[in-house]
Amino acid sequence: xxxxxxxxxxxxxxxxxxxxxxxxxxxxxxSMKMVSGEIVAMVxxxxxxKSTIARLIxxxxxxxxxxxxxxxxxxxxxxxxxxLIAQGDWCLPWFTVRNNVQLGLSDPSHWGKAxxxxxxxxxxxxxxxxxxxxxxxxxxxxxxxxxxxxxxxxLMLDEPLSAVDAVRKTSLEQxxxxxxxxxxxxxxxxxxxxxxxxxxxxxxLVVGGRPLTILHDEGLERRPxxxxxxxxxxxxxxxxxxxxxxxxxxxxxxxx
Length: 256
Description:
This protein is of the alpha/beta class and 256 residues long.
């Protein structure tokens, strides 16, 4: 299966836009690929360039050199097919859940698909509620469904669970992953949390440095495709411990 997203020798620096940013570019000849339907988790230190990669793929930033390719075509700007759920709260507070999701519909006849995704996301009984009546995790799921029904084939999720408490986090990881899979979408899931990255992704990228480089690239076995089941697996826990050790060696001065 060919890549749905490809970054090909991509370079980017804020120095050309903000002279005080510093000499070193964030990206220099950076390359990566994502295949259709794949959830890729990218974990690395703050400020290393993870969010910049998300915005380059979304078309909100344009590289200084190299190319970002989506479905075989160079990315030159934003598109409904490439969604970004940025850090923060992006529900419109004066709209209900139903109205927020309907904003994404290019065709009202697609409401049936929206209802299916809302059910997978655990929101089918919240359609007439307002964002203020939902938890932060609930509002993130509304934004997720809205982006998917808008036609996103690939989604960039920038720290989607950073404001979620540990008690609810595992459940939301499972729900968001299931919603992405139900839609058949690819995703780049950006996080500082190595455990979160292991639990949600099909493939794990550990990144760091300036310019940013991929330090570790690993496909993950997911049998069963169930986060609670994975947490209870001794094989998963052994792999988790080994990966934490390896990452600590890669970045001894940083907590990923």
